[in-house]
Design goal:
The chain is α/β, with parallel strands linked by helices. Helices cover 32% and strands 24% of the residues. Among the domains are: 148 residues, FAD/NAD(P)-binding domain, CATH 3.50.50; 139 residues, 3-Layer(bba) Sandwich (FAD/NAD(P)-binding domain). The chain contains eleven helices and 23 strands. Helix 1 links the parallel strand 1 and strand 2. Helix 10 packs across helix 11. The N and C termini lie far apart (68 Å). Bound molecules: flavin-adenine dinucleotide (FAD).
């Protein structure tokens, strides 16, 4: 008699979930019934989000799950998981549907953490999703339109536009570098003097890029300064108000604050009965990447308390390990021990310049930028057919502006 296929339910169509689904589907086994549940119809390629703010096409960031899955034996469901019961092995979704599983994999990503700083959530922008990036892009153009339309009789300080980025980790640095160049272009197009536009990068630690080696931080700081970014280290956030931001020992008048300083685990993990979470809300996993206390539940990506969690590369690695261990478990074989994989970094800072850190090798400038673009293309080629991968990659060069001044409508 034919065996019933093992039901594997993956929740989250991001880096970890997609990597796991593809690794399982590559086995071409009729004994696997793979379901991928995600609340979005696409994967967000977050590494390129900063470019969307600076007028590049969001199509590079938005990769449809149907293009990734193609003809593979993966059932893709658009739904939102609301609760997980490891004892009954069921996942309840907000649509009312419930999914029973033999093995489940959760890759829900992370959420923004504001650490209770007053006003931050209400007034700040962020860079956590495509919609957030487009919202910030629109706001920048509106600021330029308003400034250009104003009478010039106000004093210089009142006309000053300060773009304040809070958090000089990798995302904040990428954004600061890109904005410094992009805002110069907007100044020209909107006929606003570039002397009235500032990019301020704020960091609570004594230096930028706290987790990176000090030599890298110094080179990147030098590059940011060349681009005209003002760096304020050792400044903790006190609060944000509608038109100003208050830091330790300093107040900046601004209508543009971008928060890139913190993330926390997805709230759903804390609601799963019988599993453990750490101080950051991430799930404590065993040596095989299973949630401690739930043998049939694997956790991948930002939600797993692993050494390099918080990186797309880690989520991809996790997805492959979870897939391997599910197959081994089904076959009654010994599970593979999870070894965290040291990520490499390729940090773009302004046009055609990046700091690439691959183990002990550091490459700065155009060479780093090429390595970064190779990493982007490599990911697209891993998840998409070749022609679609190149199409998405090329989108990174397309301009997609949001205001009539920068992208005038053709006459009717
Ligand atoms: C601006 C920015 C730049 C970054 N740059 C880099 C970089 O250059 N290199 C790098 O390695 N990492 C980078 N990262 C980090 C990287 O994006 C994350 O580590 C990675 O996305 C984590 O993968 P994940 O699979 O855990 O979650 P995600 O990729 O976030 O995927 C989670 C998925 O789950 C879905 N989901 C959430 N809740 C539910 C639910 N209840 N039901 C159904 N679906 C749900 C989400 O919509 C999403 O599709 C960057 C992050 C940001 C914000």
């Amino acid at each position: 008699m034919a065996k019933n296929p093992s039901r594997i339910v993956i929740v989250g169509g991001g880096f970890g979930g997609v990597s796991c689904a593809l690794a399982l589907a590559s086995r071409c086994s009729p004994n696997l019934a793979i379901t991928l549940i995600s609340d979005k119809p696409h994967l967000e390629y977050t590494a390129a989000l900063y470019r969307v703010v600076a007028g590049r096409s969001p199509l590079e960031v938005c990769i449809p799950l149907r293009d990734i899955i193609g003809d593979l034996p993966i059932e893709c469901v658009r739904d939102t998981a609301a609760s997980i019961d490891p004892a009954k092995r069921t996942i309840q979704c907000t649509s009312g549907s419930a999914y029973s599983y033999d093995y489940a994999v959760l890759g829900l990503g992370s959420k923004i953490a504001y650490f209770g700083i007053p006003g931050m959530q209400e007034y700040s922008f962020n860079l956590k999703s495509i919609s957030a990036a487009i919202r910030l892009q629109r706001h920048l153009h509106e600021m330029f339109e308003q400034t250009a339309a104003r009478n010039d009789d106000r004093d210089d300080d009142a006309r000053r536009m300060r773009m304040v980025i809070v958090g000089a980790g990798a995302s904040g640095v990428e954004l600061a570098g890109e904005l410094a160049s992009y805002l110069r272009i907007l100044s020209e197009k909107h006929h606003v003097s570039k002397d009235f536009v500032d990019v301020d990068l704020i960091e609570a630690s004594p230096r930028i890029l706290p987790p990176f080696p000090a030599t890298v931080a110094r080179r990147v700081e030098q590059r940011l300064k060349e681009l005209g970014v003002n760096i304020y280290a050792n400044r903790t956030m006190v609060r944000e108000e509608l038109q100003e931001v208050i830091l330790k020992g300093m107040t900046i008048k601004t209508e543009t604050v971008v928060w890139t300083a913190g993330v926390k685990a997805h709230d759903l993990y804390a609601l799963i009965p019988g599993i453990e979470t750490d101080k950051k809300g991430r799930v404590v996993v065993d040596e095989y990447l299973r949630a401690k206390g739930a043998d049939h539940l694997f956790i991948v990506g930002d939600g797993a308390a692993t050494k390099y969690s918080g990186m797309a590369q880690t989520a991809i690695h996790d997805g492959m390990v979870a897939a391997e261990n599910i197959i081994r478990s089904i076959n009654g074989a010994a599970l593979a021990v999870y070894h965290p994989k040291q990520p490499y970094y390729a940090l773009p800072v302004g046009p055609r310049w990046a700091a690439a850190i691959v183990g002990p090798v550091h490459v700065y400038g155009y060479g780093g930028w090429i390595l970064r673009r190779i990493a982007d293309l490599r990911y697209f080629l891993n998840v998409l057919p070749v022609t679609k991968a190149f199409r998405v990659f090329r989108e990174g060069r397309s301009i997609c502006e949001v205001c009539d001044v920068c992208s005038p409508q053709p006459p009717p």
